[in-house]
Write a structure and sequence with these properties.
The protein contains three helices and four strands; from the N terminus they run ββαβααβ. The chain has 80 residues and is an alpha+beta fold. It has one domain. Strand 1 and strand 2 form a beta hairpin.
Length: 80
Amino acid sequence: MPYALYLKNDNRYLGDLSDAEFQFLRDNLEEESLTDTDYTISRLTLEYLRGNGLEQHAANLLGAALGDADEVEIVYQSRG
């Protein structure tokens, strides 16, 4: 089941992640609770994820989310 990504501040749709891409983020990013549905992404975090094997599609989505910002919060929602 794919997961839709949005910017947290304005709910702008960024794109969909596959199950494998989403699982990679869950495995490599900190969740504050079991019900947490957001992540903070910085340029440094994106480089860390790329270095650990983040797929190009997911890297492109996160890079587009950052735009000119140094850090953004993204939220995800299951499409299933």
